[in-house]
Amino acid sequence: MSFESSLTFFLAIFIFSITPGPGVFALLARGMTLGTKHCIPLAFGMSISDIIYLVFACLGLATIAQNYALLFEFIRIAGALYLFYLGYKMFTTPIEIETVSKDKAPKKDFFFGFMQGFLISASNPKVILFYIAFLPTFLDIKSLNGYDIFIASTLALVALMIGLMFISILASQAKQVLKSKKSLKRLNYTAGSIMIAAGSFLLFNRQA
């Protein structure tokens, strides 16, 4: 990956990490009730699960690209359409936030928080579909190697943790802002526009 591609990939994953969804809402609830430091294991568990999906997507894409060109073309188009779908859903899905009361707060140990975050992300198979759709924008799938996967995984892990902890800090320090449905709706519109733009790039920018 070039420096420009790496930077763009990093920013894209960061934006993906702060997009409203089950994981972000879990962080909002925990940050609003337990504080920022108790969000660290939850965010780390979500990030590790995402990295596993990312590696699986890289390996699967490389194998398909090398042996099944027509099938890879189908996946590329399906991935672009999926990004369009995500963008559409972000524009149309109503925002709902459920807070966790202190007397029902989850256990504060690291392992419990990590497993909760890991399962939140791992239980969502759409994550791997996102990476399958998104990776060809930044990586030459046909010449993908272990170093590329390592760099992509490292960048993604750092970007995910920064994004998720950013949400956690805001949840802890600016509760009223993040409880606003209007604010989350603006975030949805922004993220949805980015998803649609990424889908358009993937659909019309065919790799040689």
From TrEMBL:
It is found in: Cell membrane. The chain crosses the membrane at residues 6-28, 40-62, 68-88, 109-134, 146-167, 187-204. Keywords: Cell membrane, Membrane, Transmembrane, Transmembrane helix. It is a multi-pass membrane protein. It comes from Arcobacter nitrofigilis (strain ATCC 33309 / DSM 7299 / CCUG 15893 / LMG 7604 / NCTC 12251 / CI). It comes from the Bacteria. One of its GO terms (cellular component) is plasma membrane. Its main location: membrane. PANTHER family: ARGININE EXPORTER PROTEIN ARGO, ARGININE EXPORTER PROTEIN ARGO-RELATED. InterPro entries: LeuE-type. One of its GO terms (molecular function) is amino acid transmembrane transporter activity. This is Lysine exporter protein (LYSE/YGGA).
